[in-house]
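This part of the workshop introduces the protein records we will be handling. A record pairs a protein's sequence with a compact description of its fold. Comparing a sequence with its tokens is the quickest way to learn the format. The record below serves as our worked example for the rest of this section:
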Amino acid sequence: MISEKPRVRFAPSPTGYLHIGGLRTALYNYLFAKHNDGKFVLRIEDTDRNRYIEGAVENLIKSLKWGGLEYDEGPNIGGQFGPYMQSQRLDLYKKYAADLIANGKAYYCFCTTERLEKLREEQQRQKLPQAKYDKHCLHLSKEEIEENLSKGVPHVVRLNVEANKKIIFNDVVRGQVEFNSSNVDDQVLIKSDGYPTYHLANVVDDYLMKITHVIRGEEWLSSTPKHVLLYDFFAWEKPVFAHLPLLLNPDRSKLSKRQGDVAVEDYRIKGFLKEALINFVALLGWNAGDDKEFYYMNELIENFSLERVNKSGAVFDLEKLNWLNAEHLRKKPNTDILQMIKEEGKKLNIDYQNFSDDYLLKIISVMKERVSFVNEYFTKSFFFFEAPRTYEQAAIEKNWKSETPGQLNKLHDAFTSLTNPLKEDYENALAKVAEELNIGKGKLIHPLRLAVSGMSAGPGVFDILFILGKDETIKRIRAAIDKIGKS
């Protein structure tokens, strides 16, 4: 553990559902904080009002809490413990912007949109590597600035970046990183609507909230020089930076909705367990230095370190996620799965008054190794909840012969004579009928499975019979003989 108790933050923008990449960032911050007995702060960066989506904050918090990522502090808003909201801290940003202006580290810019567009077009014609502001308004006199402000001329506040200076910082993941200030634009700090940009608000908040470690995605690496300059201009101690690798599609392109689901909500709706998704996301760029892939949250907290985060992009492997979901589901106690099945059944409008807990627990015991998702307890074993209405055609063609109805009639009679049969009683009865008919047991087992389940695969046929019970079993044998046809 590090000597100082860290304070980290997850600072999403409320622009929609929580992205898988956002969950990974939140998770790494959370794991780092918990491993080092620190604090995990949630801050909503809602200063870009054009991109704000109603309900997004609630969705973000819901997804984080679903994943088990509870934040540790926030302001008391209306009696409720909420996240920090940047839109409620505007006076702070204006104050610090004014301090920068007073010290010559920032300046007012009154350039119109038209002028900025012409400047951009001219720089493109000159084939400059990047469009940058030309510092035109830096050279305005004090009188010109005051006159423009008094007239209410629209303006922004820009960072005053001095050219040809080295900007160097250390990154836990990438080591020493160096930029030349000539490649850093005079970034807008306060927009014309009075709201701060990400860059100013981010640095001010991280400082005031005593954030010790800034753990975020690689896409913010190019913005870090601007943040380093701001820390230097304010004479503030910089946090430790750690930029996480990109998330990639299997073809190594950047993970995007064009190639699949990217929102946490999508995976929750599809039935992925939170434990599996958290386990999977933790491995997108981190490992403990061994081959272990199955983790519970407490194990992730115990083993996590930023030093084990990789530089290279992490491939989003859906097959691994599916495998982890199956593993986590199988390791759950049957009583937990019982409650999950009941919740899933409600979505499917299944009436549980017809099925006792004991009955459902028996289904779980025989299906547990055969399912990867809770809903597969229904889709892969529907026959436990209703008699088959149709029968697998390929199985009929393969296993239903002219003599099959007569053989099943014998089996029907044998089962009817049983009293409170157990699994082995069905098995013994079938073996006896096969012996009497002088046929292999398979000649009876395959059409019997088809008759009671409508399928050619599934759990052991005698498990099915025992769970269904004698009355239901013989009723289904009779129905199959009638529906599929008699010899």
Q: What stands out?
A: DSSP finds 20 helices and 14 strands in the chain.
